[in-house]
Design goal:
This protein has about 200 residues and is of the alpha+beta class. It has one domain: Jann2411-like fold. About 40% of the residues lie in helices and about 15% in strands.
Length: about 200
């Protein structure tokens, strides 16, 4: 059975999940999600929408051209990041291929700006990656961010949205909240109210 996939939706349809302002990798993992009525959306489904997502997250210049092979690389890494997040949330061992993929992305290009010098500007920090490595640089940055989330102080706060069918991730901000958005929270409360006998 083939899923209905909305290739691109308005950014206001699903706001960033809690924690996405601190972890771009969380927002990256949430660029695909299940919606009610057996639908999914994918903000990386096409090179144009993937390029908009990268530019909106300051991971590449807006004039960099993205091709399908680049969008596919992004979707592949996203799948591995989602697998690592799911394993952390479930308390299970992560898939070996996902660990390997994130580590390969981490080491593909330098993520730290290098030190450069010229007569006019003196010493400065620059990103040392040519345009053809822009996606590799973005993926390395996202992989590093995912590793930071999985091993940092917020790792125990990483959660999956508790509103079926949503499968987005979030960083819990207070209490036991396990919803990625108000919309999902409202849907979960409505479902609970329908199950509760009067």
């Amino acid at each position: 059975m083939e899923e209905n996939v909305a290739a691109d939706i308005a950014p206001t349809a699903l706001p960033p999940a809690p924690g996405a302002d601190r972890y771009r990798s969380l927002d990256f993992a949430d660029t695909t999600a299940a919606l009610p009525a057996d639908q999914r959306y994918d903000l990386l489904a096409a090179p144009e929408s993937a390029m908009r997502w990268l530019a909106a997250h300051d991971l590449t210049a807006p004039d960099v051209k993205l091709y399908e092979v680049c969008a596919q690389r992004m979707r592949t890494l996203r799948g591995h990041v989602r697998a690592l997040f799911a394993a952390r949330v479930d308390g299970t061992a992560p898939p070996e291929q996902s660990l390997r993929a994130v580590n390969e992305a981490l080491t593909a290009v330098p993520t730290a700006p290098l030190l450069a010098w010229d007569r006019a500007q003196g010493p400065r920090r620059v990103q040392a990656h040519p345009t053809d490595q822009a996606v590799s640089h973005a993926l390395a940055t996202l992989a590093a961010d995912a590793a930071d989330l999985l091993t940092g102080r917020d790792a125990d706060l990483l959660a999956a949205c508790g509103s079926t069918p949503c499968d987005r991730f979030l960083v819990r901000t207070h209490g036991r909240r396990h919803w990625c958005s108000t919309r999902c929270g409202d849907r979960a409360r409505a479902a609970r109210a329908r199950r509760t006998p009067e």
